[in-house]
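Tutorial sheet, problem 5. The two components below are modelled jointly, 594 residues in total.
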Amino acid sequence: MSKVLTIKYFALLKDEAKKDTETFSTNARTAEELFIELSKTYGFSLKPEQIRVSINDEFKDLSEELTENDTIVFIPPVAGG
Amino acid sequence: MFKVTHEPINPEQLKEQSKDDKAGSFVVFEGWVRNHNEGKKVASLEYEVFESLALKEAKKVIDEAKEKFDILDVTAVHRAGHIAIGDIAVWIGVSSKHREPGFHACKYIIDEIKLRLPIWKKEYYVDGEATWVNCQGCYKHAHNHHTEEQYYDKQLRLKNLGPEGQTRLKNAKVLVVGAGGLGCPALSYLVSAGVGNITICDGDHLEVSNLHRQTLYAHSDIGEYKAVLAKKRLKGLNPFVTINAITKRVSFDNINELVSMHDLVLDCTDNFESKFLIHDACYFLNKPLVQASIYQSEGQLQSFTFKKDSGCQRCLWPEVPSPDSVGNCAEVGVIGVVPGVLGTMQATEALKILLNWGSSTDSSTLLVDLMNWSVSKIKRSKNKSCPLCGDKPKIKGLSKNHYGRLDFELELSELTDEDLAKYKFIDIRELNEKDHHAAWENFLLQKPLSLFENDFNPASQVDPIILVCQRGARSKTLAQKLRLSGATGVFSLNRGVSSVRENWGRIQGAQCQ
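Model answer (structure tokens):
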């Protein structure tokens, strides 16, 4: 079933998506499926296992199921200083 | 040689004594008695010297200069007693093979002599008055017209800080790893807040491209150790705190000792290996850690107090991410205010933890984007399968395997001269990163990374090659990639150009054979 989500991007993912936030309608069941779907659109250079996901301001496993109106943040590792 | 004299200083004689056929440079500093000070006309001066202590301290200063700089000898003389306008009060001569270390050493010696030697100065004014103007021998006494209460006045007024909180800060011991973009602001605020014992750990030398974001340093400091420069600058900022400088990178060998000697750690480094090493050491020694990382206009801030329910770094990232999972510093770039803001936030969290005000990031990660002012606070829960703090931890203590260098990373100090001759060095930095004034810059084979991958054929490679970049991150990624595509004799130079600079004499000797 299709659901509408708010998605935020950080670091490398923001550069590649060329946006920091968007509202997105998807049939993806889990965060991982959503990321793979978005990778097809934006050509993300990172694989799902290289990123972390937050759902409604809490770090979650990529296999976590998504529900309507969730806010999803995809976070790549960052080390600069 | 250092001496104190009551007789007029004779520069010609001192110069004659310093003659040395091995020397190609002789740098002299003369300090003269001037006829005014702070708006008053000065008629003459009197120096009082605590001689036995001054001789000991001066010997230390000269030994330090010889250790730090490539010089041959030092002659230094300080006047005692009554001396007139225009007379020489202090004379320092430094002989060296080349001029550069001579200039640096001479400046170091006079600065340290003024700071550390027990020499008092009485000024006699034209109007007949006289006064002891300062005590140069003891840095704290030089500022003794200010008290700590005055220094911290504005924060002592805070009801939740007060004298008790100030004492807590004064007794605290904090380790700051990395004196770069994050470390500079973090250190400034910790020192000025009165954190009593601070250790700065950084093995890098200052480079010109650091200055746009590393605000503790001056253009004239380029080439010197950042830890030493930061210590000197910060001592000037607050004379009431103790600062130690360690001019080494954190490593598997020193991390336990460093962390265990402190109450709290700030991770201001810029690479995953250091971040995981520091994090795991803090976990095992149960020391709070405040960590930040940046990427362009964004930053991540998180603290770890290793409480029962909150997630550690490895709950999120069980393994050290590979360096190619983020862009690198030269390609990605950064605007100076970003580490400035994040480093300041680190100092804020550190002070909150030290003052028992509680940290709001010890169970969550702050994601900050300065471009759109968004701040997300993301809760970190414990991960039961975490290899460090989970139910069945795999990492039971610090082990080299978890952070150790990969086998294609080389440290020049571990190679013999004979081995060194076998390698071909290739500098993969982009042209605009180079300082064309240094002789070695033109000596190494140049092949910028942006051109490298198109025309490198691993099969045609005969000599073993060492790839060199600024810090050793890009060369490591490239070496890793080339190894995967079948090349065998490809290595990455650990620490990049700093290592070349330190070992330049040996490299040149070995390669010219």
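Marking note: The two ends of chain A are 43 Å apart (CA to CA). Full credit if you identified this.
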